[in-house]
């Protein structure tokens, strides 16, 4: 006696898992947004159980190497047998099953590329170390986004997965409640029947157009998104026993696939325009309303024949309605795109509408974690490379043995032949030679590679000369304190240089110490001349030092540009301005991002010329506060990151 059938879930993670089981190859997989351990485990097991019997489940750490993913030389078997023995990688071993990748935002480029290739081609090709093999790898990828700060899963991997699941609140509780044995057993049978029915599900062309128009309206520029939404609609129809996509299937696909990818809100519908109106004429008044019909209580009027319908509203709609009634196949409504837009809008998570509005309106930019750079001594492990373990570099023993293993038989044969050739003819006793266990040569050595994240060093160069600069010190202090509060998460450093009188002074070396910065800023005096050339040279020196230390420098100049102290210390505006422009030209040659904040009341032409010579972004802030200045500096930090990577 078969167990009773349990109704399918109407939405949430349980429905997503069943859709993946119906068309795992076409949908690719799902990305779980910051799940708890038991939530991720329940989702993965539900997908595995709904797949065909014997589907494997493999857990891949974020530090996995390409050898473990693709496969390659079986080191232990090769060394023990003396011949080349290959082994299958994790992706080939998970054929027909599930691959779970926690902390996917930390995957290396090689591991990320391997996953993308498998999701595209469903096979693994191994061509390395004398091995040329090809294995099937039809996997369903479940990756976990556990990023913090500005880390994120790479877009190339995200767009190949149909679903982005947020396991929070009622959705997580429903997933844990729905995974009882009776429900899962019933869903397994329904998913199995849906897989046999999937190839017979047909799609009306109007739904294809509606899905593409909806994706375009919400700013989804990836061509994979409409394809994944269409596959999701077919899987949903097959799961519910239908052989043609209906409005319910398209709404579910739009909510599950398109809504998490939305980057903007659709534009409001345009008002119908009058083609006959002239540019300067007002719109035409509305047509007069028709006269009211006579009262039904009037006997004569009741017996009178009804007037004919106007020609504009005559029978075309009636004819189309009759033709639709005669058509047995379900067809989308005339406003199918509007239906899908409403489905996507209603499926947006709480707060997403506000974020999209902020993005459209040019909201504030977030901070950054830092650019990546290679390091041989410290940082996050990122595989190995060929080289000798010297100068502090660390030997990667396993990769060294792996590189030497394919050549052991040839090297042992060469060693034996060389020993026979070197034997003297008069030697009576056969020399005993010790056969080396592993023959390792110079070209086999592999050393470890590390990736280290760097930050931005923001150099504030503050003009402390005269009353105008003194009035701006409060804004500079506030901006520095605001940036220091965020610098720990982004690994940014802040430095402070003041110039007045005859020269400059480094008040605060690059630091993240908030208490020390506040103390130095509070004691900053004002008054005296404006040695602008000295200030630019000091900023250049500190910026180059930060660049040599591996950081991305950003110079923020706060001055009115009224230079009156030359480079040699003599007073006078003409000579001081010439020296400032010359120092600015030298600064521009180093391609260091800079922000020039003109603190004068109306803007000084000299300040603008100096900013142009420095190739700095010129900003006039006659009434700026600390918040506005901090926002400008954060924007410039994004520029510094881009130029540093370039």
Verbal overview:
With 646 residues, this protein is of the alpha/beta class. Helices cover 44% and strands 16% of the residues. α1 packs across α12. The radius of gyration is 35 Å and the shape is flat. About 12% of the residues have low confidence.
Entry summary:
By secondary structure, this protein is of the alpha/beta class.
Question: Which sequence of strands runs across the widest sheet?
Answer: 15-14-13-16-17-18
N/C terminus separation? 68 Å
Low-confidence stretches at least 5 residues in length (pLDDT < 50)? 274-284, 289-334, 353-370
User: Which secondary-structure class do the elements indicate?
Assistant: alpha/beta
Radius of gyration: 35 Å
Count of helices?
A: 25
Instruction: Please tally the β strands and state the result.
Output: 18
What percent of the residues sit in helical stretches (DSSP H or I)? 40-55%
Strand content: 15-25%
- Which descriptor suits the 3D outline? flat
* Mean pLDDT over all positions: 75
Largest sheet: number of strands, sense, barrel closure: 6 strands, mixed
Which features would summarize this protein structure in a list?
646 residues, alpha/beta, six-stranded mixed sheet, five-stranded parallel sheet, 25 helices, 18 strands
Fold topology:
Layout lengths: L11 H11 L1 H4 L1 E5 L3 H14 L6 E3 L6 H5 E3 L1 H7 L4 E3 L1 H4 L4 E4 L7 H13 L1 E6 L2 E6 L3 E6 L9 H4 L4 E4 L3 H9 L2 H17 L7 H13 L6 H16 L7 H12 L40 H5 L12 H11 L9 H12 L4 H9 L11 E4 L4 E7 L10 H8 L3 H15 L23 E8 L2 E8 L2 H25 L2 E8 L2 E9 L2 H9 L9 H17 L3 E8 L13 H17 L4 E5 L6 H10 L2 E4 L5 H20 L1
Parallel strand pairs: 1-8, 1-9, 2-5, 5-8, 13-14, 13-16, 16-17, 17-18
Antiparallel strand pairs: 3-4, 6-7, 10-12, 11-12, 14-15
């Amino acid at each position: 006696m078969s167990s009773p059938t349990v109704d399918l879930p109407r939405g949430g993670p349980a429905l997503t898992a069943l859709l993946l089981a119906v068309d795992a190859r076409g949908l690719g997989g799902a990305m779980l947004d910051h799940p708890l351990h038991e939530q991720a485990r329940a989702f993965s097991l539900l997908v595995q159980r709904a797949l065909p019997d014997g589907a494997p489940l493999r857990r891949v750490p974020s530090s996995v190497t390409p050898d473990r993913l693709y496969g390659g030389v079986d080191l232990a078997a090769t060394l023990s047998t003396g011949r080349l023995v290959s082994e299958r990688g994790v992706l080939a071993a998970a054929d027909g099953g599930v691959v779970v990748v926690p902390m996917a935002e930390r995957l290396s480029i090689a591991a990320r590329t391997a996953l993308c290739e498998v999701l595209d081609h469903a096979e693994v090709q191994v061509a390395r170390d004398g091995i040329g093999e090809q294995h099937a790898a039809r996997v369903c990828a479940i990756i976990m986004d556990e990023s913090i700060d500005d880390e994120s899963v790479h877009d190339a991997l995200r767009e190949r997965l149909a679903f982005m699941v947020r396991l929070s609140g009622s959705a997580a509780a429903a997933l844990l409640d729905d995974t009882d044995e009776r429900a899962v057993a019933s869903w397994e049978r329904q998913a199995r029947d849906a897989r046999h029915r999937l190839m017979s599900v047909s799609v009306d062309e109007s739904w294809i157009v509606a899905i593409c128009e909806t994706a375009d309206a919400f700013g989804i520029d990836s061509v994979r998104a409409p394809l994944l939404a269409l596959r999701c609609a077919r899987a949903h129809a097959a799961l519910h026993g239908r052989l043609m996509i209906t409005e319910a299937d398209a709404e579910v696909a739009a909510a599950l696939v398109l809504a998490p990818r939305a980057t903007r809100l659709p534009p409001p519908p345009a008002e119908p325009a009058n083609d006959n109106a002239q540019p300067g004429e007002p719109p035409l008044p509305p047509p007069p309303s028709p006269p009211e019909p006579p009262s039904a209580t009037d006997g004569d009027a009741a017996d009178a024949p009804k007037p004919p319908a106007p020609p504009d509203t005559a029978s075309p709609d009636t004819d189309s309605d009759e033709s639709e009634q005669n058509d047995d196949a379900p067809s989308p409504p005339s406003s199918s795109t509007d239906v899908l837009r409403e489905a996507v809008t209603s499926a947006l998570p709480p707060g997403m509408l506000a974020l999209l509005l902020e993005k459209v309106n040019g909201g504030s930019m977030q901070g950054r974690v830092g650019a990546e750079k290679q390091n041989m001594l410290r940082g996050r492990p990122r595989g190995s490379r060929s080289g000798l373990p010297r100068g502090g570099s660390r030997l990667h023993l396993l990769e060294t043995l792996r590189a030497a293993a394919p050549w052991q038989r040839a090297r042992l044969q060469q060693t034996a032949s060389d020993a026979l050739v070197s034997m003297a003819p008069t030697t009576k006793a056969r020399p005993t030679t010790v056969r080396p266990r592993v023959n390792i040569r110079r070209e086999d050595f592999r050393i470890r590679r590390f990736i280290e994240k760097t930050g931005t060093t923001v150099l504030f160069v503050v003009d402390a000369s005269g009353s105008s600069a003194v009035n701006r010190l409060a804004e500079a202090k506030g901006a520095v304190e605001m940036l220091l509060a965020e610098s720990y998460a982004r690994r940014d450093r802040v430095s402070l240089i003041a110039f007045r009188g005859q020269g400059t002074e480094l008040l605060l070396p690059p630091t993240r110490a908030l208490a020390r910065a506040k103390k130095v800023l509070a004691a900053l005096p004002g008054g005296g001349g404006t040695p602008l050339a000295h200030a630019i040279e000091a900023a250049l020196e500190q910026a180059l030092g930060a660049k040599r230390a591996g950081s991305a420098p950003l110079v923020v100049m706060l001055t009115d540009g009224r230079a009156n102290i030359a480079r040699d210390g003599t007073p006078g505006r003409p000579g001081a301005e010439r020296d400032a422009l010359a120092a600015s030209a030298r600064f521009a040659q180093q391609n260091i991002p800079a922000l020039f904040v003109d603190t004068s009341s109306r803007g000084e032409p000299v300040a603008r010329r100096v900013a142009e010579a420095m190739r700095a972004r010129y900003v006039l802030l006659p009434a700026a506060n600390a918040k506005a200045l901090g926002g400008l500096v954060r924007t410039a930090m994004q520029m510094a990151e881009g130029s540093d990577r370039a």
